[in-house]
Queue: 3 jobs
Job 1
Amino acid sequence: MDKKVLLICAGGMSTGILMKKMEKYAAEQGFQLRIEAIGMSSYEEVYKNYDVILLGPQVSYKKAEIEEVTKMPIAVIAAYDYAVGNVANIMKQVDELYK
């Protein structure tokens, strides 16, 4: 199954690094991943192109607001997994959102 994930952080920079790791992981695991990393100011323009949203820990306080706007499954990436780029754990969060 193709997975379509939108990553949101304050400016899109740190999630951009994570996005590259997630793309590599998906290729290694043999599944399709459509993923984009953006800043808070841009998500309303693109969220409809995705199935689930992951938030960087630094914007976790915006979760309720983003849920209200998008009506989509959303999770906040655990701070440690985010910091070390633990893509296996982050993809488990994605899988939970797809259920």
Note: Strands lie at 3-9, 33-39, 52-55, 74-76.
Job 2
Amino acid sequence: MKIPLKEAVIVEGRYDKSRLASIFDCMIVETGGFDIFRDREKAAMIRALAKSCGVIIVTDSDTAGFRIRGHLKSLLAEGRVYQVYIPQIAGKERRKRAPSAQGLLGVEGMSRQVILEAFAKAGVLCREDAPFREKLTKADLFAWGLSGTAQSAQRRRQLLERLGLPDYVTANGLMDFLNASMGRAQARELVQELFGPLPHQ
């Protein structure tokens, strides 16, 4: 049974689209890989979707996928944008003769369960009943040692690993994900569990 979504889902290619179309009943838009960098018409459509129904960005968790994700984020200054990250799992899709350059499975190679867990972690499948949650800010990331210090990158990597997220996620991407999936209070508890007591704020 397909799961209905109000938002449009943005993916890299047709095989990713086919995989998600087998799980979700929603509009799915392909970027055509790096074509989105020069396809003004498609970029305009994605911006319009973000303003009207919201968009969910799902790219591969490799370098190319994160370049595309970053470009999409730069396009979408307005509207509702949700970031879904698939885990970094080594492997090769059946249709391919050889694994990708980084040896990771893409969206098309993920199981239904893994995809659903990734969407749930991002808060996409349970927002309607979710209570109000205070959002964390860049100031929180700094106070918690996740940005602006010599140890910040290592602390972020540890937190990303705990969350089951790729290590390419930036500080801003981490903040967006934490706000969508748990909010400030729960995020603070998790950071304290990993790194010890935090300054009172």
Note: The two ends are 45 Å apart (CA to CA).
Job 3
Amino acid sequence: MAVIAMSLLAASCSGSKAEAQNENDQNSQEEMTNTEPAKVEVKTTLGNFTLLLYGDTPKHRDNFLKLVAENFYDSLLFHRVIENFMVQAGDPNSKHAAPGTMLGEGDPGYEIDAEIVFPKHFHKRGALAAARTGDAINPERKSSGSQFYVVTGSVLDSAQVDNMQINLLMDQMAKENMNKIQELYTAGNRQGLMALQDSLVLEAKKIIAEGKGPFTKEMIDAYTTVGGAPHLDGQYTVFGEVISGMDTIEKIEKVARDRNDRPLEDVRILSMKVLE
């Protein structure tokens, strides 16, 4: 009962910021007409890497290019680093932050509409994605205007991938059977809930065995070879990837950090440059 009941329950600021958001929205139509990718070289205190910005997430691409042109990212820190998960940067408050200061709340004063192109773009190793606030206060899953992360993740075996697909299918089927679940839950019918749960698990396993699960072959191949963070898929905008210099990202993810996952020794972005 606990699994389905939890699924049921889960189913069941300022003026300047608003002005900046309006300005961002006004450019949306123009952004949608250009689907060309772009490349950006990032220089850091631990080495360099190059990003490919996807053309089919134009709002995020153009915003990132705008910030690069403004030198917005110069001197900002990688303020959140978790080994075998991701490295995060883009908080303007990090530029002059004292050691030990908790970071992660800063932004340029606006958000970007979500451009979640899933399953085409997913959280494979090296994926570039936009950070955001949680669903409770951001149900539209709008992205931070500047904060981004690069996925490092870990390699999964086929059983782990199948379990993740089962969980995704179970969430979907729980929503589809919400009325029935609510009826059984209200009646305190534990046996009925468990029977329903078992039947849905069997249905999910059948779907996966037939190759019709939520993960594409490309996703499965990536997660079982180079790795990634599939638990984030479909929830955050993936708008690019690292195409060279992943060894620099690996250096960043392995640095010592404090209890807030901030590196003990600053890892700083020196500069960014758009490549032709």
Note: The radius of gyration is 21 Å.
